Amino acid sequence: MRLQFILSEIGIGLRRNLSMTISVILVTFVSLTFVGAASLLQMQVSKLKDDWYGKVEVTVLLCPTGSSKVQCASGEATPEQVSDLEALIASPELAPEIQEVWFETKEQAFESFQEYFSGQDWAEAIRVEDMQASFRIKLVNPENYQVVSDVLTGRPGVESVEDQRKIFDSLFLVLNRASVLAVGLAAVMLLAAVLLITTTIRLSALSRRRETGIMRLVGASNLFIQLPFMLEGALAAALGAVLAVGGLWLGVKYLVTDWLAGEVSWVPLVGVGEVWTIAPLLLAVAIVLAAISSLVTLNRYTKV
Q: Regarding the domain delimited by 58-163, which CATH topology (the fold level of the hierarchy) does it fall under?
């Protein structure tokens, strides 16, 4: 009987404030979509870092002819200098940091260059003599690039030490800032959702002051009186969370998995599995929103 009464009260409240309830659902949907998008974006950044940082190399460019660097004053790197560098790379100081190392001659660098830029008119003017020999080093931990750089930079025969991670740093910076922007927009929308839920509960409580007064007189507990209002807000917020999960699932399924993954198959992308991973989080956020709104409102507006 009590459950039936509570359900009937929830139905009455939702019908009386239908427009406000729909507004709560929509605002919660939009705000949690931003929260979910920010979470998925961070997951994507983590995937890219794990994949790309594991593949990047440290490139030790050897001195070419005509370099302006002090350590290249004697001209192109000599075989003796190359041998000294090989010994230094194999030394106990650097060996523990290095997973793999190979030497690329000017001829090999030219072949790679022609492979990547074949068909380009400007590439036809490049000759073998214009290329640089180099050591390609794959690190055990790419984060320890500075250790290798400090040891090799400035050595005779070394023009520069390049970390390929710099290529991706700008991309990750843009993605992280986009994630921060999404979180900021989500925070504004979540605040709007809290205010809307509070207003909806308040209007519902005011429209039923007579009923709540009678319930108070016959000895109903605070929880029994307030529970229908709390469930109204929780139901509206939960529906918004379900819509947000559905929207994110559709977006990832059709835009990422079905379309983007086919265009850029070499990039690890988030999938629908990640959407289901964050779904409980979004539902929990919705319930917390409803709980906060209820606590702020009910103690004041259900008093007789």
A: Alpha-Beta Plaits (3.30.70)
